[in-house]
Amino acid sequence: MSGTDASVFAPVKAGARRQRRRPLLSVRDALSPRAHAAAGVLAFVVPLVLWCVLSYVPFLWHPLVLVQDAGDSTVPGQYAFIAPGQRVDGEVFDGRNAELSAARRQLASGERVNPIFLPAPHEVARAFYTAFTSAPERTGDFWLHESLLHSCTIILLGFIYSMLIGIPVGLLCGTFSLFSRLIEPFVDFVRYMPAPVFGALAVAVLGLGDEPKITIIFIGTFFQAVLVVANTTRSVDFALIQAAQTLGANHRQLLLRVVVPAALPALYRDMRILLGWAWTYLVVAELIGEKSGISAFLYQQQRYRHFENVYAGIVMIGLIGLITDQVLAFLGQYLFPWESGKPSLVRLLRGSRRQANSSQAAVSSSPSVSS
Amino acid sequence: MIDLPSYREQSPEVAAHLAEIRERPVVLTVGSVGRVFDSPQGDPIIALSKIEFAVHHREFISVIGPSGCGKSTLIRIVAGLDACTDGAVLLDGHPVVGPGSDRGMVFQSYTLFPWLTVRRNVMFGPSMKGVPRAQSEQQANEWLRVVGLSNFADHYPNQLSGGMKQRVAIARALANQPRILLMDEPFGALDAQTRCNMQAHLLQICASVDVTVMFITHDLDEAIYLSDRILVLGAHPGRVLEIIDVPVPRPRSSD
């Protein structure tokens, strides 16, 4: 019985194919690829269909009436104020018609509509396009793409600054109890203060430009980042650290060569979540001092009662967030090949040269194993 | 107490082999080591009390005992991962004060670094010492050949079976050329067949590589199969009951 029995030491094969159809409901079991894809599409299609039904099926909801013809406006009455183009309550419209029919005059006409704050999907879809193509209504206002770009810049800068400081501090806290005790109690205290309360202070100190906005994003994410990163770092398997110690690693090497790489995939996931939080602070940040970015756009459109543009803007934020997250998740597979089984990004970038070398090495080393 | 009628009887060749081992220089001295844990209830728990033995160069010594006898605590003290409250551990005459690369350790749980390929895992120790990359890579390839995993050098640990992982862990510990290899129930998590293969493999490695081994196990068969001497620990408090010279000549087979 030699130790090189290939069958015992053969590499673990990734999930053997299953022929039987998998049930849709089964506790903590993966869906079949088809069901997985279908459910993912349904996640978006179902809300969209609900919205369409609510918008296009006339007898569902539609609480208001869009007055097309106010009838005989000379008839006095409680509801005489209605005018063409107005959206009025169904009761008001019926009340006016009761008044008109009592006076035997021409009745008002109109169609049942939804409130202005619920535009139909096609209106939002159109707004999605026209919001980019229509010039700003006042000079000095920004185009939508300029607003979006400005928002993204604020987010990115605030987030990068916060990560640049937050991750190293969190790593130190998670690795050394001294730093944890020195830093975490205070951070824990500050993080309960909502970031927006620093708005006035930030404007007073930093003026009206982008700096106070970046500061709000920073404050909103930094304190959370320290605690989250510290916890993630603490969850690194202690056995790995001990193994490295018995291999002769010193403090610095333990931190940089063991703790950091061991925590990296989880840190990357943390950062994806924190980036989402940065977006939630964006709206507050953009409305302090001088209004700017996508929030200013939304604020303006809301004042002009262009709700289809408001929805288009909101959906755009959601899309940007979703796309960024999906791109980051996709990149993550190649950044952490040991978790995903995908080739590493470095190796992909280096290309075929390296591949040729390694296959050569494998060929030259194989005879020594069989001997 | 272990009740083997004739376990103290040694054939002349075994006696000569053991005498030859006793002639060799002492690598590790455990001098009346004790370890007391504070317990929240107040009474301190004595995990180890007056443990005393010496390990000679290229000797294979097993430590066996029931669970709770402190055998893991003992090997952690030798590794420097835990401190003794009494006595001292000497490696080549120098007291052990913390973990170091002169004592390689293989843990029961899989402790390969998941972000490094198998080859990089084996290179970890030498690279901590600043050995140039080309040299440590060459050494790593050599150690992977010794444990029979040359074909898996570019795999990640999660692509390997349990037995393979432990073989890489052995190669990683040996790549540091430690004075003594400490193994804390390294095959405890493996299935019976794989464990059998690993034991045979470990014997091969020990025969071909200049290494001294201290091996923790709770499996008497495993201890007899592998060791020159067996240290039997008793529990409450953890203490040495007996040190047995294994009367089985080498080379050994698994039955």
List low-confidence stretches of chain A: 359-371
Radius of gyration of chain A: 30 Å
What is the CATH C level class of the largest domain in chain A, in words?
Mainly Alpha
β-sheet strand percentage of chain B: 25-35%
Run of helices and strands of chain A: HHEEHEHHHHHHHHHHHH
Quaternary arrangement of the chains shown? heterodimer
CATH H-tier superfamily of the domain at 26-97 and 212-246 in chain B: P-loop containing nucleotide triphosphate hydrolases
Structural class of chain B: alpha/beta
N to C succession of SSEs of chain B: HEEEHEEEHHHEHEHEE
What gyration radius of chain B follows from the Cα positions, in whole Å?
Answer: 18 Å
Give the helix level of chain B as a range of percent. Answer: 25-40%
Give a description of the structure.
The complex is a heterodimer of chains A (371) and B (255). Chain A is mostly helical and 371 residues long. Chain A folds into two domains: 64-113, no CATH class; 129-345, MetI-like fold (Orthogonal Bundle). Helix content of chain A is 67%, strand content 4%. Chain A has helices spanning 6-9, 33-56, 90-102, 121-133, 144-175, 177-190, 199-206, 211-234, 238-246, 251-287, 293-303, 307-335, 337-340, 345-350, 352-370, and strands spanning 64-69, 87-89, 109-113. Chain A has a three-stranded antiparallel beta sheet. In chain A, helix 5 (144-175) packs across helix 11, helix 7 crosses helix 8 and helix 9 runs antiparallel to helix 10 (251-287). The longest helix of chain A is centred in the last third of the chain and has 37 residues, at 251-287. Chain B has 255 residues and is an alpha/beta fold. Chain B has a domain at 26-97 and 212-246: P-loop containing nucleotide triphosphate hydrolases (Rossmann fold), CATH 3.40.50. Helix content of chain B is 33%, strand content 25%. Chain B contains seven helices and ten strands. Chain B has a six-stranded mixed beta sheet with strand order 6-7-8-3-9-10, sandwiched between helices. A four-stranded antiparallel beta sheet of chain B has the order 2-1-4-5. The two termini of chain B are 23 Å apart. The interface between A and B is large, with 40 and 54 residues.
